[in-house]
């Protein structure tokens, strides 16, 4: 094929042709996923030096750049030969894919993120490092799951949880061990899990040599912060207006726009609100006389009072949540529940890893024996709480959020305490995020 062949630009025109394809891909991506349109247009294309054919002098595709890798400054690195050989729709899909890496903070969450200033040797470096490669695949699985939910299927060779038979709506951290098991099984049979595709520093936080070239200044930290808040607010607006937004993106938006608050105050407010919602003013009592008492000569009528609801704790005792963290969190929850229900009221607690352990009935949260240590499935613990008799009106779940959740809202008011920065909670729960290093209250476990 020569420079005069139909559809092939002359050497002086390939730069313009590449920019035109990127512009067309942006429009395609914005149309297919309008809830991410502002993010797509915020990507900064950086056109790299091409690999030229020795005979024609035209750019040829470099397979190492087939994913149009992005870095953490929102630069999209475009290799000209690859761009000219890739369909516009596929380029647009990769734009949406990299937006997922960027706004979900995969670089910051990466277990292989190196010290500042360290660079991998080549674009294929991530594929050559098994741990980095597996993290890239797991992060891809987290993103691609939501893209597929929006009817956006990826090109051949990318990781698909649905095609691999993996559960949906999991985080990259959850997918890593699943992919390890699959890769080992496939390796014994002579197969490969998926192609070694490098998404760039946006996926693992490692700088590549090609990030030094071109005009790839990208976005500042403030720019990224404002952009992510804008994206999250837009997603929530569309979701509220019954727009078609995949569940994973709705969950991310809800967590992203939630304001930073005093978690202790929020925890207390949610538990008290849950107690009030579960009980309602449904009984009469004499602890506080009725305001109509003055209208009666000799009779003191009772007033409407709010019954104290039965409260149950579901405690994640899997290996991913340390006992020290649970001790501190139980201090907090126990103190609030005592304030709502009274210090002498009995509390039912269920420790749960992949299965619920026998219910414990205690007077103080400090008396709970934390048993367990396997995998994590809070669905089992919540189901066990709902099976208690009498059924609790308020359920408080303590977990790091690395767990599947019931698809439907259980018949009780649910407060989920998420420990640490990872994990997620269902849309139907009241949520408070608790720092993993939160200091202990002055009152310690076991003390009244």
Molecular structure report:
Helices cover 39% and strands 12% of the residues. It is an alpha/beta fold. The strands form 4 sheets. It has a 6-stranded mixed β-sheet with strand order 9-8-7-10-11-12, sandwiched between helices. A two-stranded parallel ribbon has the order 1-4. A two-stranded antiparallel ribbon has the order 2-3. The chain has helices spanning 14-32, 37-42, 80-85, 88-103, 106-109, 125-128, 130-149, 161-164, 172-188, 201-204, 221-240, 247-257, 263-279, 323-341, 378-386, and strands at residues 44-47, 51-52, 59-60, 75-78, 281-285, 303-306, 311-316, 347-352, 360-362, 394-399, 413-419, 430-434. The longest helix has 20 residues, at 130-149. The N and C termini lie far apart (84 Å). Mean pLDDT is 79; it is low at 1-6, 122-128, 280-287, 304-308 and 441-448. Strand 2 (51-52) and strand 3 form a beta hairpin. Helix 1 packs across helix 4. The protein has 2 domains: 11-257, no CATH class; 263-282 and 308-434, von Willebrand factor, type A domain (Rossmann fold, 3-Layer(aba) Sandwich).
Quote the average pLDDT. Answer: 79
- Helices and strands, in order, run as HHEEEEHHHHHHHHHHHEEEHEEHEEE
Tell me the major beta sheet: 6 strands, mixed
Helicity, as a percent range: 25-40%
Overall strand count: 12
Characterize the overall form.
Answer: elongated
For the biggest β-sheet, the strand order reads: 9-8-7-10-11-12
Helix count, DSSP H or I runs of 4 or more residues:
15
Task: List segments where confidence is low: pLDDT < 50 over at least 5 consecutive residues.
Answer: 1-6, 122-128, 280-287, 304-308, 441-448
Strand content: 5-15%
Structural class: alpha/beta
By oligomeric state, this entry counts as single chain
Q: How many domain regions? A: 2
Distance between the termini: 84 Å
Alpha-carbon Rg, integer: 27 Å
């Amino acid at each position: 094929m020569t420079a005069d062949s139909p559809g092939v630009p002359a050497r002086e025109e390939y730069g313009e042709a590449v920019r035109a394809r990127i512009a067309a891909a942006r429009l395609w991506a914005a149309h297919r996923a309008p809830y991410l349109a502002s993010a797509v247009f915020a990507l900064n294309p950086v056109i790299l030096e091409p690999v030229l054919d020795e005979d024609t002098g035209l750019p040829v595709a470099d397979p190492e750049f087939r994913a149009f890798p992005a870095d953490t400054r929102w630069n999209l690195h475009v290799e000209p030969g690859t761009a000219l050989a890739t369909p516009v729709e596929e380029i647009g899909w990769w734009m949406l894919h990299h937006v997922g890496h960027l706004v979900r903070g995969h670089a910051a969450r990466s277990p292989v993120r190196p010290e500042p200033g360290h660079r991998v040797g080549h674009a294929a470096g991530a594929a050559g490092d098994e741990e980095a490669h597996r993290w890239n695949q797991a992060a891809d699985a987290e993103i691609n799951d939501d893209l597929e939910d929006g009817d956006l299927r990826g090109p051949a060779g990318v990781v698909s949880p649905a095609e691999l038979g993996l559960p949906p709506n999991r985080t990259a951290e959850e997918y890593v061990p699943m992919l390890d098991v699959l890769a080992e099984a496939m390796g014994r049979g002579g197969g490969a899990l998926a192609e070694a595709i490098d998404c760039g520093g946006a996926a693992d936080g490692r700088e590549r040599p090609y990030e030094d070239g071109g005009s790839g200044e990208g976005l500042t930290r403030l720019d990224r912060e404002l952009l992510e808040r804008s994206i999250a607010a837009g997603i929530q607006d569309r979701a509220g207006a019954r727009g078609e937004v995949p569940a994973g993106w709705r969950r991310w938006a809800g967590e992203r726009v939630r304001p930073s608050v005093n978690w202790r105050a929020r925890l207390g407010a949610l538990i008290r609100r849950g107690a009030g919602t579960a009980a309602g003013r449904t009984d009469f009592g004499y602890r506080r006389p009725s305001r109509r008492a003055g209208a009666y000569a000799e009779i003191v009528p009772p007033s409407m009072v709010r019954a104290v609801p039965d409260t149950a704790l579901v405690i994640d005792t899997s290996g991913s949540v340390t006992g020290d963290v649970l001790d501190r969190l139980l201090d907090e929850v126990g103190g609030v529940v005592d304030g709502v229900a009274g210090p002498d009221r009995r509390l039912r607690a269920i420790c749960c890893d992949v299965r619920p352990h026998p219910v414990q009935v205690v007077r103080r949260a400090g008396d709970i024996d934390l048993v367990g240590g396997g995998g994590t499935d809070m669905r089992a613990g919540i189901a066990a709480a709902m099976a208690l008799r009498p059924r609790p009106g308020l359920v408080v779940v303590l977990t790091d959020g690395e767990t599947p959740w019931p698809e439907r809202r259980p018949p009780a008011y649910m407060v989920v305490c998420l420990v640490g920065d990872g994990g997620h909670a269902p849309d139907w729960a009241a949520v408070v995020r608790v720092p993993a290093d939160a200091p202990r209250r002055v009152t310690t476990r076991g003390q009244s």
